[in-house]
Amino acid sequence: MTRSLRAGRSGDVLAVVSQSGPTVSFFDAGSDRHLGTVETPAEPHELCFDPVHRLLWCATTYRSGYYHANSGRRSELTVLDPDTRQIVAIVDLAPEHGPHGLALDVARGRLYVSVEASQTRGGGVVVVDTATRRVIGRIDTGAPGPHWFVASPDGTTGYASNKEAPFVSVVDLLDGTLTDRIEVPGGEGLAVSQDGAKLYVASPYASFGGARPAAPPGVRVIDTKARSVVGTLPTDDLVVPVHLTATGKLLAGEVRMTDGNTEPGQLQKPGQLTVFSADSHEKTGSVDVGRCPLTITSSPDGALGYVAGVIDSTVHVIDLDAMSCLARLDIPKLGEPGAHGLAYIPRVTS
Q1: Which of 312, 314, 311 has the alpha carbon at shortest distance from 342?
Q2: Quick one: average pLDDT of 37-45?
Q3: What's the first-to-final CA gap in the chain, in angstroms?
Q4: Cβ density class 297-319: b for 16+ within 10 Å, e for less
Q5: Would you list the DSSP string of 20-68?
Q6: Which string of DSSP letters, residue by residue, matches 265-312?
Q7: Which end of the chain is more exposed for a tag (fewer CB within 10 A), N or C?
Q8: Does the pTM exceed 0.70?
């Protein structure tokens, strides 16, 4: 079973960011063979693959450090060709800065990029035309730190989680306006169901600052029509990334700390990938992964999960049916942090 899961993926590529590298590394998804590494401007965070133009967008967020603990915010997106493994463009969003969350509308050729507030404007979402690579719009999110962003499958509605701000911003992507706020106790990663009816938000905000969490950890389930929280998928520890597979599995990355430690660099326990059914909301399994999981993605068929642990700088490849680790990829880093953004790139087919 393991062999068949892996063998049919030869030619597909997994791209992995090293935040301190600063690099994007490429691996064959069938063999885990390292194909090459591209050095990027500091400091890369998230990735988004555009299958129409076969380009990989990379958000370079800070000059060094983390959210609320950095030496300055960058304003660029790096555009890479994953086949030749070369940088083809640097798109400067200035005066916007702190780009992080990336969401693609393939049908309309739009890339949505969350950006942080400045002294003169609030946080928002920048709209980039993927053909011209030019900024064509901006949507206010009503919060200083929109960090993660997803778009509904029909491309009409966007959702931004705002770290410590106690709500999810709802924006109309056609009109370019903020339309609503859904109350949550701070938010991290988020994912929207394939029918657009449910939004899943990791909450509360993972501050790591020693303060007590605003609410019990877990994943808030939001009815997008009612625009309200209708349930919580409970977890033992704070969740940062969430991801929905094509087969209806909700993947949540739990950050587990040694008792008494509250700083990111002191997270000693392995992280945990916890899986729920998106239909029944039942927990179906869990498995240890690298310390401080920040990003999760999956193969297009939903059979494999990939979890980037930023402190260990690893990517764990998970069989999502057996809930077992098939491989661990070690991502080069220069100090901390390490592995962060992920993208699965299917091979070219005739």
Answers
A1: 314
A2: 95
A3: 27
A4: bbbeebbbbbbbbbbbbbbbbbb
A5: TTTEEEEEETTT--EEEEEE-SS-EEEEEEETTTTEEEEEE-BSSEETT
A6: GG--SPEEEEEEETTT--EEEEEEESSSEEEEEE-TTSSEEEEEETTT
A7: C
A8: yes
DSSP-based three-state secondary structure for 231: strand
The Cα–Cα gap between 71 and 68 comes to 9
User: Is the CB of residue 82 less than 8 Å from the CB of residue 345?
Assistant: yes
**What's the rounded Cα separation, in Å, for the pair 134 and 91?**
8
7 vs 3: CA distance, rounded Å: 6
Q: What are phi and psi of 3, to 5 degrees?
A: -60, -45
pLDDT at 207: 76
pLDDT in tens, 93-110: 999 999 999 999 999 999
The C-alpha atoms of residue 79 and residue 57 are separated, in whole angstroms, by 5
Question: For 71-80, what is each residue's pLDDT tens digit?
Answer: 889 999 999 9
The strand pairing partners of 243, in sequence order, are 251
Quote the DSSP letter at residue 188: -
- Greatest Cα pair distance, the chain, in angstroms, is 56
> Dihedral (C-alpha) 277, 304, 319, 251: value to the nearest 10 degrees?
-30
Sign of the four-CA dihedral 164, 168, 174, 178: negative
Domains of the chain: 2-345 (2.130.10.10)
Q: What is the Rg, in whole angstroms, of the alpha carbon atoms belonging to the chain?
A: 18
The arithmetic mean of pLDDT across residues 140-146, rounded, is: 95
What pLDDT score does 273 carry?
Answer: 98
- Over range 215-233, report the average pLDDT: 96
Q: Are 225 and 264 in contact, with CB atoms under 8 Å apart?
A: no
